[in-house]
UniProtKB/TrEMBL annotation, chain A:
Pfam families: His_biosynth. The gene is hisF. This is Imidazole glycerol phosphate synthase subunit HisF. Heterodimer of HisH and HisF. Belongs to the HisA/HisF family. The active site is at 11, 130. GO terms for molecular function: lyase activity. It is found in: Cytoplasm. It catalyses: 5-[(5-phospho-1-deoxy-D-ribulos-1-ylimino)methylamino]-1-(5-phospho-beta-D-ribosyl)imidazole-4-carboxamide + L-glutamine = D-erythro-1-(imidazol-4-yl)glycerol 3-phosphate + 5-amino-1-(5-phospho-beta-D-ribosyl)imidazole-4-carboxamide + L-glutamate + H(+). Pathway: Amino-acid biosynthesis; L-histidine biosynthesis; L-histidine from 5-phospho-alpha-D-ribose 1-diphosphate: step 5/9. Its EC number is 4.3.2.10.
TrEMBL record, chain B:
Heterodimer of HisH and HisF. Residues 4-197 form the Glutamine amidotransferase domain. Keywords: Amino-acid biosynthesis, Cytoplasm, Glutamine amidotransferase, Glycosyltransferase, Histidine biosynthesis, Hydrolase, Lyase, Transferase. This is Imidazole glycerol phosphate synthase subunit HisH.
Amino acid sequence: MLAKRIIPCLDVRDGRVVKGINFVNIRDAGDPVENAVFYDEQGADELTYLDITASHEKRKIMLDVVEKTATDVFIPLTVGGGIGSLDDIRDLLNAGCDKVSINTTAVNNPEFIAQASARFGSQCIVVAIDAKRSTGEPGDTPPWLKGSESLSYLDITSHLDTAWEVYTHGGRRAKGIDAVRWARYMEEIGAGEILLTSMDRDGTKIGYDIELTRAVSEAVNIPVIASGGAGELGHLYDALAGGKADAVLAASIFHFRQHTIREAKEFLHAKGVTMRL
Amino acid sequence: MIAIVDYGMGNLKSVEKGFIKSGVAVKVTQQPADILCAQGVVLPGVGAFKDCMGNLDRLGLIGPILRAIESGKPFLGICLGLQALFTESEEFGHCAGLNVFKGKVVRFPASELKVPHMGWNIVRFKNKPPIFDGIDDNRYFYFVHSYYVVPEDSSITAGATDYGVEFTSMIWKDNVIATQFHPEKSQAAGLQILKNFGAFAAKH
C-alpha cells in the first residue's frame, strides 16, 4: 500500500530559515540544511522549501541551499516561491531539487504549467493553490480569462455556487476563480500534484479545512497535499482520513518541537493510516 | 568508475550525489566512449518515454548502451531507465523501446487511485538480487510514475509492489538490474543499493 506522506515545510528568506527548529541538536536554527537533515533523520517523507526572499537578486542563494541540501538529504525536495520562468525551474532541478511548486505564475498564465510540464515532466510540477471560502463577491479575474470564449468551457470563473475562491499574494487578492474547478483544470493541462492551502486556516492551528481538502481531492486524480492550519496531531489525521489528502504539509507543529515527525507517524499508524515508519 | 548516462531526462544530480554519498566514483556523461569503458552503467531518468528514446537516439547512445548490456557490464536502470529496456510503451500511442527484454510499458488502469503513483510504497522480493544485500524484504521505497512494465518472462521480476494492481517494481537478469522506484530518493535503503551496485561493478 502506498503510504500517506508527511511533509515538513521550511520558510527560507535570503538563504536562512525563518522559523527554525528550536532544538538542542541544531547548532544553527537558521541553516536550512541542518533543519533538512534533522527532518530527514526523523523520518520525513519529503521536504519543502518555501522561498520567501523578496529581492530578485538574492534568489540565486536558494540554488546554493538546494545544492547543499541535495548533498546530504536523500528524500524528495520541493521548492516553491517566486518561480516565474522555465529557466527558474531548470536551474532548481539542476541544483538537485525534485519538484517545483508554482502558484502566482499559474494563475497569471496557465499556459506556463502546460509548457513546464511538457518540458520537465508533470511529475515535477506541483501547482500550489491558495484557497479561501468565497465571500460572495468574486475578485477580479486575471486578464487571460477575461472575455476568453475559448476557455469558457472550462467554467473556472467563480459561480454563485463557488465555495472557495483562488487567492494570490498571501491570501490578499481574490482572483475570481473557483478553487475546485481550477484544480481540475491544472490537472488537465499538466500539473502532477496539487499543494492546497486553506488561507482561512493558515497560521490558525485550528486544523485543516477538511471540506476544501476533500472537495479538491475528489475532483482530481492527481495527489493532493493538504496545507494550512495544523496545530495538533489529530488535525493531520482529519486531513488524511476525512479530507482524503494524499499528504499533509505542516510547519509550526514540527518547528517548535510540539511534536516530532516520528511521533506524528506513530500516532497516525495507530489510527490505521498507512505510514512509512 | 560508474557512468551515469546523461540524456537530458530529469534529475541526474541526485543520482550522482547519491553515489558520491555512498563512496562510489561516478561520471555523468553523454560520451559513448565513457559508457563503453565504465565498470558499470546507470541509466536514470524521469519524464516521458518518447522523449527518453528520442534523446538516446539523437545522442547516439542506444548502440553503446546495448553493447554495454550485451558485454555483461553491470547495468542499473532507474524509473524511465527500467521502462526503456522493454519492447514498447503505450505512452502517447506506441513507442519502441530498447527491447532488451520482451514486454510492454502500460498505464495504471483507471480507478479511484491517484495517478501518478507518487510516494513511498513497499517492494516485495520475488528474486532478491545481490545488490539488495543488507536490505530487508517489504521495505519502503520512493516512487513517482504513471506507467509500469509488464515483462513477458515473469522470471525477470525481482520485486513487486501493490498499487491497485500488483506490478513489477524491480527486474533482474544476469548483469541487468532495474528499479521502478528511485534509490537516490529512498533514504538509507536507497543509498545502500547504490553502494552495493558500486561494489558489484568494481568486482566485475
